[in-house]
C-alpha cells in the first residue's frame, strides 16, 4: 500500500443544516469551495465535527457523494469511519466505496470503555479490514477512555503499512511527545486540537485536523505551514491571534462554536441537531466580539 502524506492542515467539515434540520447542500458546497480556494491540504468527511451520530445512513452516503463530486479531486479526502461495534465497522469497510478517499479516520471506541488490549484488538481488526490506510483518533474527552502511548506505538509497529498515523486530542503533551519520540519515521502524529497545534508541531507533529479551519482556512493553514518550515516566530504570532477564539469554539461544545462563527460570516445557518444546541447568547456575543477584532 502506497504511503500517504497528510502533512499540513486538514479540515473536519461541518454539516450545515436548514431551519427544518435537513442538510443544506448549497451551504456545504460553498464551504467546500471556500476551503479549497483558501489552501487547505485535505478535507475530513463525516468526522466528529460533522455531527455524524445524528446522520442516518442515507444522509451519510449523500454527504460522501456530494463532497467527492464537489471537491473533484482537487484535495485529498479522509473518511470518518468508527464506532463502538468492531464487527459493524469491519462490515462497513467491506461494503462501502472508498475509491475516492485517501485514508480512514477511526475513533477509539466510545462508551464501552475497552481496556488497552481491547483497543488494540479493535484497531487490529479495523486495519485488517480496511482497504485504505487508517489514522487512529484518540479523544478521551469524548470517548471516555484514553489510548496510551504504549498502545499507539504497538499498533504503529505491528501494522506499519496500514496504521499510518494518529489524530491525537488527548490534551496530554507528555503522552504525545512520547509517541513522537518512539514512533517509526513514517508514522504521522496529527494534532486533534487547534489550540495546541503550534506547540505540537514544534515537537514533531505533521499538522492538524482542524475545526477552526472551517472558518479561517487560509490563516490557520498559513500558521501550520510556517511552523512546519521552522519559522516559529511568525507562526506564533498567528497562533496568538486566535487564542481567544480557541476556547470559545468549544465552551458550548463542538461544532456549536464553529457553526456560530460560520453563521456570523454568512456561510451557513446556526442550526444543529439535538442533542446539540447552538451556543448560549453570552458565548455568541463573545464570539462576535472576537471576530470583530480579527477583521
Keywords:
single chain, 295 residues, alpha/beta, 8-stranded parallel barrel, 46% helix
Question: How would you sum up this structure, described in words?
Answer:
With 295 residues, the protein is α/β, with parallel strands linked by helices. The protein has 13 helices and 8 strands. An 8-stranded parallel beta barrel has the order 1-2-3-4-5-6-7-8, surrounded by 6 helices. Helix 9 runs antiparallel to helix 10 (232-241). The relative contact order is 0.14. The model has no long low-confidence stretch (mean pLDDT 97).
| Backbone shape | globular
Unreliably modeled segments? none
* Total helical segments: 13
How is the main sheet built? 8 strands, parallel, barrel
Secondary structure tally: strands = 8
Alpha carbon gap, first and last residue: 45 Å
Q: Spatial order of the strands in the main sheet?
A: 1-2-3-4-5-6-7-8
Kindly state the percentage of residues in helix. Answer: 40-55%
In percent, how much strand structure appears in the residues? Answer: 5-15%
Q: Indicate the radius of gyration in whole angstroms.
A: 18 Å
| Structural class by helix and strand composition | alpha/beta
Global mean pLDDT: 97
How do the SSEs run, as a string of H and E?
A: EHEHEHEHEHHEHEHEHHHHH
Amino acid at each position: 500500500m502506497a504511503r500517504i502524506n497528510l502533512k499540513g492542515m486538514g479540515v473536519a467539515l461541518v454539516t450545515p443544516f436548514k431551519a427544518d434540520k435537513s442538510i443544506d447542500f448549497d451551504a456545504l458546497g460553498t464551504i467546500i469551495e471556500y476551503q479549497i480556494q483558501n489552501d487547505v491540504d485535505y478535507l475530513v468527511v463525516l468526522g466528529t465535527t460533522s455531527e455524524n451520530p445524528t446522520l442516518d445512513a442515507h444522509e451519510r452516503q449523500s454527504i460522501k457523494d456530494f463532497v467527492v463530486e464537489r471537491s473533484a479531486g482537487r484535495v485529498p479526502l479522509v473518511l470518518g469511519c468508527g464506532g463502538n461495534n468492531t464487527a459493524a465497522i469491519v462490515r462497513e469497510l467491506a461494503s462501502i466505496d472508498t475509491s475516492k478517499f485517501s485514508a480512514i479516520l477511526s475513533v477509539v471506541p466510545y462508551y464501552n470503555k475497552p481496556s488497552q488490549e481491547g483497543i488494540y484488538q479493535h484497531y487490529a481488526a479495523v486495519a485488517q479490514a480496511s482497504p485504505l490506510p487508517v489514522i487512529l483518533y484518540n479523544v478521551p474527552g469524548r470517548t471516555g477512555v484514553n489510548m496510551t502511548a504504549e498502545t499507539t506505538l504497538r499498533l504503529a509497529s505491528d501494522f506499519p503499512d496500514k496504521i499510518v498515523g494518529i489524530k491525537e486530542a488527548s490534551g496530554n503533551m507528555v503522552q504525545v511527545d512520547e509517541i513522537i519520540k518512539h514512533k517509526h519515521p513514517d508514522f504521522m502524529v496529527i494534532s486533534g486540537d487547534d489550540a495546541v497545534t503550534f506547540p505540537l508541531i514544534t515537537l514533531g507533529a505533521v499538522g492538524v485536523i482542524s475545526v477552526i479551519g472551517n472558518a479561517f482556512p487560509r490563516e490557520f493553514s498559513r500558521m501550520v505551514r510556517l511552523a512546519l518550515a521552522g519559522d516559529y516566530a511568525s507562526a506564533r504570532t498567528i497562533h496568538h491571534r486566535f487564542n481567544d477564539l480557541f476556547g470559545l469554539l468549544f465552551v458550548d461544545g463542538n461544532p456549536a462554536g464553529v457553526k456560530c462563527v460560520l453563521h456570523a460570516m454568512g456561510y451557513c445557518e446556526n442550526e444543529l441537531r439535538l442533542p446539540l444546541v447552538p451556543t448560549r447568547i453570552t458565548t455568541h456575543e463573545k464570539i462576535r466580539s472576537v471576530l470583530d477584532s480579527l477583521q
